[in-house]
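Researcher: I'd like a structural prediction for the single chain below. Treat it as a standalone chain; there are no partners to consider.
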Amino acid sequence: MPLPVPFSLTHPARLRHVAVLLLATIALGACTRTVPAEEPVRAVKVMTVGVSVLSAAPEFSAEVRARIESRLGFRVGGKITRRQAEVGQHVRVGQVLAQLDPQDLRLAADAARAQSAAARTQRDLAAADLKRYRELRAQDFISSAELERRESVWKSAQAQLDQAQAQLAAQGNQAGYATLVADVAGVVTAIEAEPGQVIAAGTPVVRIAQDGARDVVFAVPEDRAALIRMGSPVKVYGWSGEREMDGTVREVAASADPVTRTYAVKVALDAAATPALGATVYARPQALAHDGAQAIKLPTSALRQDGGATAVWVLDTATMSVRSQPVQVATADGNEAVIGAGLAPGMRVVVAGVHVLAPGQKVSVYDSKGAAPHVPPAPDAAKSIASDAGAPALVPTAAAR
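Model: Treating it as a single chain, here is the predicted structure.
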């Protein structure tokens, strides 16, 4: 009985069959089309651009300061032995603030007193000689020249006495300068020297804010300093915002601060209504207020950055798509941005969800009173491919041909 012939893939009939199957598979793959997923239609909030009235004014944080603040120091140098003043203490005129070691000043005053006594003795001796020589001149025992010389000696001695007495008075005053007293009534705001420290004459030791009128001091940018004029009104509010005070601009700095590049503005307040010294308040210069002005305002949520410029999404109602519109922000009015250029009344601007949109994207308007419009889900790619694959029945036949 003959043995069976083993199956071989190199058999011509088998090769033709495999080739037909491969061609049919390739043709089927070429005819099948992948349907791309449809971009979802996003629901957005929009607002119609219109002109509204500005109501807010720029507000600056300010501090209540004394109109006159003195830095008191000793008029002589020495070592500080005591300091009676403390920060926040209210002092009166003549109250002792600090003291120096007076020993050296007392010794200097004793030396000046001794010099004065010696000068007085020399003067008295010259006066006695002058009296005697006048009597001799009356008897023609001496010449007129000798008498004049004795008169010159007396005058010189008198001048030396006057000089010694002036030095004694100066040294006596310096001894009194060893005690620092308040020459004005006010509140101690700073201590700049401590006991044991050796200081020179004129070194500040105590800083006192004088009683009386108070100023509200705040800083404004360079572009707004020129708008604030002397005497212009300023509204001042306390920390809680409930208390309102009226003030006037008293001084505007002539030069900007070298670090912050801002200008200091001082506002005068009535002493009776002034808050506590050093309190933080809010100042609203009326010269910078925009009350009653007409402008286009948008919520800050509508703004975005597009290539380094500020832009918004504008809705095209004909195609229900969005486009990017550059705008220029002029200032702020509360929590809203004031648009200086780029928009016109009547435009519809997207105010929520601006960071998930793209130019030309289809959108729908979100209705806050009802549910958001239904967005149909994108068709399943697998089902689309399957249905397309089953449709063309002539693909294998064409491939076979």
